[in-house]
Amino acid sequence: MAPERQTKAVGYVHLATVDGAHGADHIQRHKDTVIACCRDSRILLTHMVIDIRGRQGRGRALDLLVMERASLLIVPSLAQLAQSCAELAPMLAHYFSPPAGVADLIAVVDGIDTRTAQGRIAIDVLHTVARFESGSVYHA
């Protein structure tokens, strides 16, 4: 019997501001959230990308998924990934929604895991909210 392949993941943590030890504590808490999720779910964390203030590392994290270095992105919450639904929706559609999606997503605190039906529904709802906010919701 072949050994079970472990899911590989990229962790992504974003912190908008840093104010000394307090900022370092926030970063560590977010990293611990991602690491605990991996440990509890038997996921192999292959990369951890940390952004402070900007979101330059987010592109690197997403590129790792596209290059198939991992098949799962884990974030402490969706707020780490984007500033608004309008910014988040195209990212979710492009990277994490079938059929075009290249990977799965876990937002730990939000309870979203796109490997499950409930997680895929949550992503669909978020996408609909973003379309509503942008005024592009279909009218009957």
Helix and strand pattern: EHEHEHHEEH
Mind telling me which CATH architecture this is?
Answer: 3-Layer(aba) Sandwich
Mean pLDDT: 86
Q: What structural category characterises the helix and strand content?
A: alpha/beta
Q: What's the CATH C level?
A: Alpha Beta
Tell me the helix content: 40-55%
Note the overall shape: globular
Give the name of the CATH superfamily.
Resolvase, N-terminal catalytic domain
Instruction: Please tell me the total number of domains.
Output: 1
Please give a structural write-up.
With 140 residues, this protein is of the alpha/beta class. The chain has a single domain, classed as Resolvase, N-terminal catalytic domain (Rossmann fold, 3-Layer(aba) Sandwich), CATH 3.40.50.1390. It has helices at 21-41, 56-66, 78-81, 85-96, 117-134; strands spanning 8-15, 44-52, 72-75, 104-107, 112-113. The protein has a five-stranded mixed β-sheet, sandwiched between helices. A hairpin with a 4-residue loop joins strand 4 (104-107) and strand 5 (112-113). Helix 4 (85-96) crosses helix 5 (117-134). It is globular, with a radius of gyration of 16 Å. The model has no long low-confidence stretch (mean pLDDT 86).
Architecture blueprint of SSEs:
Blueprint: E1 8-15, H1 21-41, E2 44-52, H2 56-66, E3 72-75, H3 78-81, H4 85-96, E4 104-107, E5 112-113, H5 117-134
Parallel strand pairs: 1-2, 1-3, 3-4
Antiparallel strand pairs: 4-5
